[in-house]
Every structure is written in structure tokens, then in C-alpha cells.
Amino acid sequence: MSSASTPDFAFPVAARYAGMASSPLKDIFSLAARPDVVSFAGGIPDPSLFALGDIAECYDWVLRERGTRALQYGVSEGEAELREQAARRLSRELPTDASQIRVTSGSQEGLFVAAEALIEPGDVVLVESPTYLAAVQAFAVHGARMVGVETDDGGVLPDALDAAIRAHHPRLVYLIPTFQNPTGRSMSAQRRAQVADVLRRHDVPLIEDDPYGELSFDGERFAPIASEPGMSSRTLLMKSMSKLMSPGVRIGWIRAEGPILDTLAVAKAAISMQSSVVDQLTVARYLETKDLDAHVATVIEVYRERRDAMAQALTGRLPEGAHLTRPQGGMFLWAALGEGWDAQDLLADAVSAGVAYLPGWSFFAEDADRSTMRLSFVTHSPEVIADGVGRLGEVIARRG
Amino acid sequence: MSSASTPDFAFPVAARYAGMASSPLKDIFSLAARPDVVSFAGGIPDPSLFALGDIAECYDWVLRERGTRALQYGVSEGEAELREQAARRLSRELPTDASQIRVTSGSQEGLFVAAEALIEPGDVVLVESPTYLAAVQAFAVHGARMVGVETDDGGVLPDALDAAIRAHHPRLVYLIPTFQNPTGRSMSAQRRAQVADVLRRHDVPLIEDDPYGELSFDGERFAPIASEPGMSSRTLLMKSMSKLMSPGVRIGWIRAEGPILDTLAVAKAAISMQSSVVDQLTVARYLETKDLDAHVATVIEVYRERRDAMAQALTGRLPEGAHLTRPQGGMFLWAALGEGWDAQDLLADAVSAGVAYLPGWSFFAEDADRSTMRLSFVTHSPEVIADGVGRLGEVIARRG
Predict the structure, then answer these.
(1) Is B25 in CB contact (< 8 Å) with chain A?
(2) Quick one: pLDDT at residue A22?
(3) DSSP 8-class letter at B17
(4) Boundaries of each Aminotransferase class I/classII large domain copy (chains A, B) (predicted)?
């Protein structure tokens, strides 16, 4: 994407971005964007499911009824209406006041704001192994060292977390307890209580990232770890409208308690002053006047069917000894092909055969299982999924 | 703004934000927001001048004609249409290709992205004395030490810049050459050439911040320093739609050349993934189909009249020996009351008398002239300006 001309001057690049001029994932996404490739690589909502009419109506209302305010400077904390709506929605899981909400331009900015506010160079951040790549980046550019904590199909292992805290004295722990990216796994209520107990005991703060929790396929809702006794004051709970309403609108929020709220607002101001007031007021209007739950219910129907289609298509197509997660919600399946397989090596053949996925190595802070792959089931119809998985199965069979 | 409850847990705050829980400016803005106070404190465009109808039409078009794309994930570099329009507009001053544009969520994010990409802890950043406060903050949280360079009414002094570069070996120089915030001053073509010569000679990169350049009251347009020979590859040129179209929409861009463009995109992705696609496509549509120059021309008419009203009202109302800038554009007048005056001390009396301004000390990296104040002339009508300045004059007279 850089200019064709070779400049006569080389800008000094900060060490935090040295060698990061091109990300390997970007190259994968470019490959996956080829029109002849069925891509399971991205976590891209199906645009045909967007509530476009409702959202357009809300933009129209905001510009007609709140126009001059929407176009004017706002406040770093976020617009009052949106914070009210966010608090109302969150209060179904955890009593929340609007004053405890900080609006961010999507969850990515939320993670970055939190990292700005909390992390010193050299700090250790404990993460699930594997965990969400872009969160790792937001922490890493602040000089944090990520240490992965062992997980099973029920999420992070409390004993492993306890041992890692003792060994590494982390600044914070970052978890995605529900329909995790990349694995699709969720932590049970019991596991959450155990994890909360460990965190409380060691007085270690938690960043709880929950962009997928409402995409539950079987009606089961998991209360956030922040709602465990004593945990609400120790947790920055991150929410996003990207997976529920629209990723293009870039609106999310952080729930927190106490003085850290002020630091979050100062950090947000330093980073971007405030989020788009037009977008904030539109999302507030949407949450106030439209039925997000009903919309999410229609999305879930479709995603459930696609998860089933992908799980079924994969049956018998993975190598013997492979492990596949069985997510009850969210957007991702996670496959470990097992000993001797390298999903990154396999990708060139897969793309040649017309199918793409995200190699799993990039989701590990350390000791990557290179046999893993993340497969998003939300973007394509069951037919396209079956076709793509079929192609993947052939590539695996040829290599097997 | 923090929660009323006292939490049982104190989050660790990173040193970069230690002691920054509440900014003194925030308190001033709260005071200034009192309905009985005529505030010249903020740099707030007059909302009655927004091209609300045109902007609403563009949002409507984007949601009708590009709806699913506007609501979907975009790319960190920015949407192609917006980069095209930005390049077309910039090319009037400096030949620019769309590939040389990186979209940001307003200039503040532009400054933060640039700081992320370039600054190492301990680096020196040379700035005008005085300079824009929020830029200083974006650099400071990256561990930079700001060193102010002497200025006169023609901007930064080339010899002083040369000496400061020799003395401090700065990572970069940050300048606002046109209608500067906070002083309203502009650098002449000759001064720009001299400054460019110094920067080229020492091979020091420049961040050129230009949010006000198009708000020229007498038709004179200043070419950016980036357009001086050899400077385009050494400069990150920052533009913003906040002062021309709307601050609430939060769209700006950086122009750069060469490999740093890739680093800027990676940093932007780490910070916020991408800017609101809805807002980006709307601004692109606005620039493509509406006449921003004609809109700016109507805004300039009003601002010029207000600058004149404020300059006239201040005549004879400042203490003997005071110095007042005579900006040819932009949003701010800058007054130095002179020896023995402290504008921060004076503020309480001013607010009691129903008028507010921004004390100038906060705009200095070091050796603040505490007798200075920034007065924005854009928010109020000439009548309200005359009234507010009259009140300020009485406060000064009482103290004099």
C-alpha cells in the first residue's frame, strides 16, 4: 500500500512497530479475498443480516432531530444517551450506572485505551492460550510481555492461572470467557467462579472481553466474570456493537468502577478526543427505539444453522486424532489437526483448492500449536460452507 | 465523573497517566459551560454554520446506496473513495496520490497514530512555544520530552530551531504553521523556506498540523512546509474535517510518503482497527458532490466579522504593554497581558463577571508566560463578543 516513489528520507520507526510494516495476517486476508476462494478466515458478519433499514432510520432521526449536536464536539466519556442505553443493557447481567460507561470506537479502541491506562513496559499480561490476536497487539505495543495460560474446552484452567500469577506477577489478566475468539469455547458458571476466586485471592485485575456473549445459539446466557462477588470493581468489561449491529459503525464501551474511570477518559481523550457523535447518538437511538434482541434472534437462527452445517461438513474430513471445538455461539470453530500437521503450510494448497482459513499459530502468545486453524462459520450459506469444507477435506486427504 | 461507590480495589495506573485523573482544562471548560458565562475558552465551531442539510443528504445517500458496505468492516488505511477525495483536495497544494493518505478519526487520532509510529520514550520533540496542548499530550504519553522553540509573530524562529536541533537532537519537530493554535499566527512563505532548510539540513522529520489553513480571511493561502523542496518525504501532513465540515464526525487524514505509510496503517489498526466506515463514506460523498470551498467561504465571512469584532472590542481594554496577535484566519486570538499579570489567577474574577477564556500557560512546553490567554472568536455573534470582552475589560481594569 505504500507510495511507488522511493523517498530520499527514512522516517525513524519506534521499536514497538519495528518489523511490523506488513502483518502476515494481512497477506492471508488478501489471499482469502480472491473471488474464487471460499474464505472462512475473517470474522466478518454476513452483511445481508444487517438491520440496514432500522439503522438508516436512526441516522436519519439523529441528523433531523439532533443534527447540530451530532455534528459538534462531544465529551471523551461518551454521549449521555448512549451511556444510558449501554448501562440499561448491561444491567441485565450486572447492575450498571451510566457513569460507569466509557464509550470507545469499537472494542479494539477499548482494548487500546485500557492498555494505555494500565500497562507499563515490561509488565506481564496473562492470556488464554490461544487468545485474540489484536488484543495481544494492543498490549504488546505498550511493552507488555504476553504469557499464555493453559486452557481446555471449558476455557482457562484455574490451577494453571493460579500458578501463572504466582510465577509471573502479571499486571492484569485478559480473558474472553464466552464464545471465545479463536476457539468458540465458553467457560461454565463453575469455572467462572473458580477463576474469579483466583483473581480475587491475588488481587489481579481482569480485562473481560465480551463481544460475542449475546450470540448464544441455545438460549444459555453466561453471566460475566465481572458479576462474580467482588469482581465488578476489579474488571474492565468490554462490550461491542460490532457483532450485534454493525462493525462499520465502530461503537463499543468499557464498564468500570472507581477512579480508573477518570484515567480511561483521559486516555481516550489523548487517543481520539471522542468517538463520532453522529455514530454514538445513532447507536443510542437504535438501542432506545429498535429491538436489538429481536434482531440478534434472527441473526442467531442463521448462525446456528451455519455452525451446524460446518460441524457436519467437517465430520470425517479431519485427520484421525484431530480435535474440533463445539461452540454454543459466537462466530468460530477451532480445529487442531494434530501431531505432524502445520496449518500454515497447508494454506497455500487450500487456497489453490479454493478455500481459506486462519492458521492458528498467530493466536498463541507462545508455544503455538501450529496444527490449529480458525474457521469462521458466519459469512457463508450452508451450501457454500459445505462446498468450502469439502475442498478443505480434499486438501487434507491428499496430505494425509 | 467517576462512580459514587468507593471500590474495594484500586486499578494500577500506568505512569504515563499518573496524576492525570482530572485535567485542569476540563475544570475550566466546566466553568465556561455555565449558561451565564460568555466563553471564549473552547475552539468550538458555531453550530449554526454547519452544512447540516448537505451532510444529512450524504449520510442518507451512503446508507441507501452503500448501506451494507458502510456497516461492514473496512480497511485500516481508510476507504478508497475518501482517500481519493483527500488526495484530490491536497493536490491543490502538494501533488498527492490516494495511496499516500491514511484516514484517522480526527486530527487527534492522527497525532496519536504518528506518535505511536515514531516516538521512543526519552525522545525530544521540538514544538513552538506556545503550541497545541493536546498534541503535546499525545507525544507526552509516549514518553517524549517536549522542548519549546522561541517564536515571534511570524512563527518559529529558524535560528532558534537550528540551535534547538543541535542542542537536543530531537526525534521530530511539530509545527502548526498556519493560523496556529493557540496564537493565530502564520508563517510567511519566506519563513517556511527557512524552516524547511533547517529541517533538511539536519534530516529531522516534521509533523505539520494544518487544521485551520483553509480558514483564511483575506484570500491568502499558505503552501504547507511539506511542499517545500525535499520536504514532502520528511513530513507527516495532518488534515482534519473538524474545522471545515464537522468536529462530531471525527474524520481527518495524514499525508505521508514511503514505508512509514505501512507503519501508520499498522499503528492505526492496533489503536482502533479503522475509522467509522459510515462516516468515511459520508465525508467522501460530501467532498465529491458538495462544494466545501463555497461552504468554507460562508463560514469565513462570519469568522472574519467576529475576529474584527473581538479585535476592536479588545482595543484599549488590555493593560498597557499587552500584546495581541492579529490572525489572518483560523479561530483564535492570543493576548499577553504582560509583566505582573497571571491569566490563570484572573480567571476566577472573569468567570464571576460572566466571561471565560483559556489561560495560556497550558500551551507552553516549558517556561510558560502566565500572562497569556487564548480567546476564540468563532463561537459567538459580534454583539455577544462585544459584551463578553467588555466584561473582561472591566475585570482587567479593576486589577490594573
Answers:
(1) no
(2) 65
(3) G
(4) 67-391
